[in-house]
């Protein structure tokens, strides 16, 4: 069982929970058990061991004679701090700048595993669930159950010695301090310098998994990690696609060849229902289960790596969108996030329990969230900040947890140094991936000559792509329509439509006695599943079924 590390040392643990007034954590990830680490008058600190399905976090105890000061995770990008202040016995829980290690607060408990914060029969928050089915993520700090909330980014939360919540205060807010004289070349050079520093730290002393895709975020990490003069690396490069001929695997191979990397290609097959408990536990059921495709390579990551580069959110820092004239940032995010296929879920799952259309409440909720960012004068930056506080916090970071079934994620684009660089740029340099493109052209021309999957050309020909790319893309779209149905292009197709997937969907959604029928009429669910199988490439139906499956498995596992 886990033990509290000695002052100045560290250990590993699965999850942490701080409880008050004799409360105990009620649930844990599969195969994990809570055990007390430390206790005092009115409080107890609990932990679980890592398990085969949850690698957990490094737990470091700072040498401090007066306070009990613990850090879960790895600074500066992915951590959670807990401190018992010796003078008055209060507890302070500090989230990192982007709250990448999630913590949840309920009555008398703060925990890193949200189901541990509620009782055996929690009341559901149907307004929050309405946000999940509409947007794909739970909005603000709301959870699918009432009276439990997610702790905000860059925030200190204080609890008195008797367990009463005292305050919540941001220790860092958002500021945009652009230098208007900065050129794209200057910004690209600065990005290279910052990434080299960050990735050198993240790669030091570990076997590092290096995912390569057809996009730019992974390519800039490849450029930095394999640059001339870089320290020696132990890299395990891999890529995945939905069939052996996928563009992603082809382009990843070209990137790997350019830097003499031994690429391990992986074709994603139907894995979800073979490891459903593991995926539900890792994500806590808070995001679409079919999206966690890193779960398909967990055994390989566990066997070949100690950590993996999770190069998420660079596309937002350096591909920032600008709201249309007259459109608020809240409405822009609401529109961008709205999922095709949400209408069936709203009408059949949410409204019968909520009693009203959730859309007005959701719009008001995002408007309130956006109001906290009104001090940011630039609408592009304000939207970027809102996306990071909402979409990243509730969707991207939840999917990243799937890595922890096999290895430790390292998050270069959540490093404060990368964020500070982005927030020092004029908004004109934040859009269109200009800085990343210029970085590759200037510092990795061999990689810039490899096709960028999103635009189907290399980065040097982008200047002229409008004149010739459209006919080429039309030909490729036609070729894709002629591909056999086994050549899957989207993860929900691979997971839900083969025989294993159909059996799993039937077990959770269709068969008599399925728990979801307590909340949605079985006849309506059967009609939905039949429509999906009759129109298997319809993305709206694919989303509807996968989101309903996610809710059904979450509810049966935790609610």
Description of the molecule:
With 559 residues, the chain is of the alpha+beta class. The chain has 3 domains: 136 residues, Aminohydrolase, N-terminal nucleophile (Ntn) domain (Glutamine Phosphoribosylpyrophosphate, subunit 1, domain 1); 197 residues, HUPs (Rossmann fold, 3-Layer(aba) Sandwich), CATH 3.40.50; 68 residues, no CATH class. The protein contains 19 helices and 18 strands. The chain has a 7-stranded antiparallel β-sheet, with no helix packed on it. Helix 1 runs antiparallel to helix 9 and helix 2 packs across helix 13. The longest helix has 22 residues. The radius of gyration is 23 Å and the shape is globular. It starts with 9 loop residues before the first strand and ends with a helix.
- CATH homologous superfamily of the largest domain? HUPs
User: CATH first level of the largest domain: which class?
Assistant: Alpha Beta
Q: Report the C-alpha radius of gyration, rounded.
A: 23 Å
Low-confidence stretches: 465-470
Strand order of the largest sheet: 1-5-6-7-8-12-13
Q: Report the sheet with the most strands, covering strand number, pairing sense and barrel closure.
A: 7 strands, antiparallel
How many beta-strand runs? Answer: 18
Architecture of the largest domain in CATH? 3-Layer(aba) Sandwich
CATH topology of the largest domain: Rossmann fold
Question: Could you give the distance between the termini?
Answer: 27 Å
Label the overall shape.
globular
Mean pLDDT: 93
Assembly annotation: single chain
Total tally of structural domains: 3
Indicate the structural class: alpha+beta
Helical content class: 25-40%
Strand content: 15-25%
């Amino acid at each position: 069982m886990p033990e509290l590390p000695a002052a100045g040392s560290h250990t590993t643990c699965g999850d942490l929970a701080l409880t008050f007034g004799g409360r105990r954590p009620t649930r844990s990830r599969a195969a994990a058990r809570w055990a007390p680490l430390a206790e005092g008058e009115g409080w107890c600190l609990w932990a679980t061991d890592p398990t085969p399905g949850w690698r957990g976090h490094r737990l470091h105890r700072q040498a401090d004679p007066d306070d009990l000061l613990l850090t879960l995770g790895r600074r500066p990008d992915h951590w959670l701090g807990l401190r018992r202040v010796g003078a008055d016995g209060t507890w302070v829980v500090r989230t990192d700048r982007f709250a990448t290690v999630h913590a949840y607060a309920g009555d008398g408990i703060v925990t890193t595993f949200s189901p541990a914060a509620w009782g055996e029969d929690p009341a559901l928050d149907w307004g929050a669930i309405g946000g999940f089915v509409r947007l794909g993520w739970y909005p603000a700090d709301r959870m699918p159950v009432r009276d439990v909330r997610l702790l905000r980014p860059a925030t200190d939360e204080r609890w008195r010695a008797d367990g009463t919540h005292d305050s919540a205060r941001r220790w860092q807010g958002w500021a945009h301090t652009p230098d208007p004289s900065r050129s794209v070349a200057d910004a690209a050079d600065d990005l290279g310098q910052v990434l080299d520093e960050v990735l050198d730290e993240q790669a030091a002393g570990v076997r590092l998994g290096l995912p390569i895709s057809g996009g730019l975020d992974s390519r800039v990490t490849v450029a930095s990690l394999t640059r001339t003069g870089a320290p020696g690396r132990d890299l395990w490069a891999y890529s995945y696609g939905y069939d052996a001929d996928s563009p992603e695997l082809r382009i990843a191979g070209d990137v790997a060849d350019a830097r003499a990397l031994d690429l391990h290609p992986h074709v994603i097959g139907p894995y979800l229902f073979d490891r459903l408990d593991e995926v539900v536990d890792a994500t806590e059921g808070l995001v679409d289960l079919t999206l966690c495709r890193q779960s398909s390579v967990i055994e390989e990551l566990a066997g070949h790596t100690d950590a993996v580069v999770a190069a998420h959110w660079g596309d937002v820092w350096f591909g920032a969108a600008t709201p249309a004239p007259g459109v608020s940032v809240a409405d822009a995010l609401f529109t961008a996030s709205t999922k095709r296929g949400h209408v069936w879920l709203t009408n059949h799952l949410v409204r019968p329990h909520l009693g009203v259309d959730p859309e007005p409440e959701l719009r008001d909720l995002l408007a309130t969230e956006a109001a906290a960012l009104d001090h940011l004068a630039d609408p592009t930056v304000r939207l970027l900040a809102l996306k990071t506080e909402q979409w990243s916090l509730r969707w991207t970071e939840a999917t990243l947890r799937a890595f922890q079934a096999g290895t430790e994620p390292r998050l270069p684009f959540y490093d404060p140094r990368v964020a500070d660089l982005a927030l020092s740029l004029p908004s004109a340099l934040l859009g269109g991936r200009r800085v990343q493109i210029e970085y590759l052209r200037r510092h990795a021309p061999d990689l810039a000559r490899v096709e960028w999957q999103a635009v189907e050309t290399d980065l040097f020909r982008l200047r002229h792509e409008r004149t010739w790319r459209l006919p080429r893309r039309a030909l490729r779209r036609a070729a894709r329509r002629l591909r056999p149905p086994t050549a899957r292009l989207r993860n929900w197709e691979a997971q839900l439509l083969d025989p294993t997937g159909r059996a799993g969907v039937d077990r959770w959604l269709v068969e008599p006695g399925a728990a979801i029928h307590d909340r949605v009429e079985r006849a309506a669910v059967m009609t939905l599943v039949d429509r999906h199988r009759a129109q298997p490439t319809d993305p709206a139906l694919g989303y509807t079924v996968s989101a309903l499956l996610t809710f059904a498995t979450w509810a049966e596992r935790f609610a």
